Amino acid sequence: MKVRILGSGTSSGVPRIGNDWGDCDPAEPRNRRSRASILVESDTTRILVDTSPDMREQLLAANVSDVDAVIWTHDHADHTHGIDDLRQLMHARRAPVRGIAPDVTAEGLTTRFRYVFSGGGPYRATATMEPLVDGMIVGDIVIRTATQPHGGITSAGLRFEQNGKSVGYATDFNEFTSDMRQLYTGVDLWVADALRRHPHPTHPHLAQTLQWGAECGVGRMVLIHMDTSMDYMTLRAELSERVEPGFDGMEIVI
User: Fold this and answer.
1) What confidence tens digit (pLDDT) does each residue in 89-142 have?
2) Tell me, what DSSP letter sits at residue 74?
3) 53 Cβ contact list (under 8 Å, min separation 6)
4) Looking at residues 239-248, what average pLDDT do you find?
5) Could you give phi then psi for residue 53, rounded to 5 degrees?
6) 167/191 Cα distance (integer angstroms)
7) What does the alpha-carbon distance between residue 146 and residue 170 come to, in Å, rounded to a whole number?
């Protein structure tokens, strides 16, 4: 499998509006972060996770015009509000994009973006919606999932398996449950939220993510959903060889 980090930033991105780079060096291009999203690919299958507000530029940079499915982890704006750009994927494939989400997320999306899933007037539906089910298969990729606490809501933790390899994707959570531990244990690659160094009420901080990854025995860890306090080169200098900060456009083959 191959994973492409489409976006590695928080809901406000890096820099924040106002050209606020915080502690991030603006001369380091890997510090420029769009909103969090990834692509997971095999030789025959491509899955998009979340539709960030930056999706158009992310897919242009990746030279991607079609996916086999999109999975939404939860319905917060920074993970969903690029949903209108699925229309171009629909045109390219001449059929609605297959959409997958946990039930509560699906309910929110199909209510807020009814026209995407039902169409309207002369416009056809852009996407379908079906429930995210543990063990479901898209193409040749098996998808396992666990519910993650995320403040007052939940998000979907994801594990992708194909040909003996595994990728875990954990964004937007603030507790680490036994189901999550089981889901991520032993993955070859764990792409995980590490918002900042000090605690946050709805996201893990760096020390938590590093500890949980070590406890799960993950093979390689890539950090995402980082804010303006997380300078790329500073992190690279202090992290171990098996852990590294992600960046927009990063590709990992396992």
Assistant:
1) 999 999 999 999 999 999 999 999 999 999 988 899 999 999 999 999 999 999
2) -
3) 35, 77, 78, 81, 82
4) 96
5) -60, -15
6) 8
7) 10
Distance between CA 157 and CA 212 in Å, rounded? Answer: 14
Residue closest to 6 by CA, chosen among 57, 41, 65, 46: 57
Residue 234: enclosing H or E segment and its boundaries?
helix 232-238
Alpha carbon distance 2, 192 (integer Å): 16
CA 105 to chain centre: 15
Phi first, then psi: give them for residue 217, nearest 5 degrees: 65, 40
Bridge-partner residues for 101, per DSSP? Answer: 131
Instruction: Quick: pLDDT tens for 155-190.
Output: 999 999 999 999 999 999 999 999 999 999 999 999
Compute the distance between CA of residue 14 and CA of residue 32 in angstroms, rounded to an integer: 5
Q: How many residues does the chain have?
A: 254
Does the model's pTM come out above 0.90? yes
Residue 95 in tokens: 């059929």
Mean pLDDT over all residues of the chain?
98
Task: Report d(CA 87, CA 154) in Å as an integer.
Answer: 27
Residue 29, Cβ density class (10 Å: 0-12 exposed, 13-18 middle, ≥19 buried): exposed
Q: E strands, 1-98, where?
A: 2-7, 37-41, 46-49, 69-71
CB 25 within 8 A of CB 231: yes
Nearest residue to 172 (alpha-carbon basis) of 198, 194, 203: 203
Pairing of strands 189-193, 165-170: parallel
